Amino acid sequence: MIGIFEAGGSKTEFLFGDPIKPTEVESKGIHPVFMDDQSIISVLKELSSVSNFSMPEQIFYYGASCGSHEQSARMHGLLSEVFNQSQIAVESDLLGTARALCGHSPGFAAILGTGSNACLFDGKEIGPRMVSFGFWLGDEGSGGHIGKTVFRAWLKGELPPDLAEHAAESFGGPRETALNEILSEKKPNARMAALGGFAIHKKEHPFFQKLILACLKEFFEENSFLVEKAGSRPFHFSGSVAYYLQDEIKQILSEQNLSPGIFADKTARLLFNYHTATNR
Q1: 220, 215, 214: which is closest to 235 by C-alpha?
Q2: Range of the structural domain that residue 150 is part of
Q3: Domains contained in the chain, number
Q4: Where are the alpha helices (DSSP H) in the chain?
Q5: 142 and 74, same structural domain?
Q6: Assuming Cys at both sites, which of 8, 22, 114, 229 could form a disulfide with 15, CB separation 3.0 to 4.6 Å?
Q7: What is the pTM of this model?
Q8: CATH code at 46?
Q9: How far apart (Å, rounded) are the C-alpha atoms in residues 128 and 172?
């Protein structure tokens, strides 16, 4: 029996059990850059506390920031504390997206969720990939990036009055204190992604239409070298931002004569299927 973790900045999915109909559990996100060890262990214990839980023989954990050796080793140690009878493999969320959406075929694989990332996949391994500087300096096209763009417009008084009122409600505080709050926030990526979610929910508004399209184009501009190398490979996307903005992304792909692939909000079940098929 295997267990699959798909962990991002806003939510974590855990699947285990029956290969045909696994148990699926969801909780808040795990992001090792913004969380201490005890907070991560708390989420892992919560996910394994369901009544029908049984210890998987193997666990495959795909998570944010786990492309770094330091964070990968740290997550392996924390997982071993909770799942001490399982064989554990920790991989990046980007490899998880590539395996889930490309399977064993070549493709362009990207994440547009709380954060963003992208790579070319040859069917086995990740090749060239996005140079990402994380939440504060990068994550173009992500919920966090869209949220930061809305936040900046709100602070500068550029939002139309109807949107400014909703932004204040979404952020949960007045504009006068908002900047200090976000700079001291423990998980600023999730907070900004929530503000980005507000923009996506209101995407028919002309102001947000323009803002969202500009943010998505920044993602493609930042990854122009990957786009050029991708050639005729299909462009696959995972994450809630990609899923709910797939019409806008397909518009950009069409303008560049690129081939749209799969758009998936969640990839944990696809990863579970990938590994159960591989283990047969």
Answers
A1: 220
A2: 136-213
A3: 2
A4: 37-47, 69-82, 93-102, 134-137, 143-155, 161-171, 175-184, 188-201, 206-222, 224-230, 240-244, 246-255, 268-278
A5: no
A6: 22
A7: 0.84
A8: 3.30.420.40
A9: 40
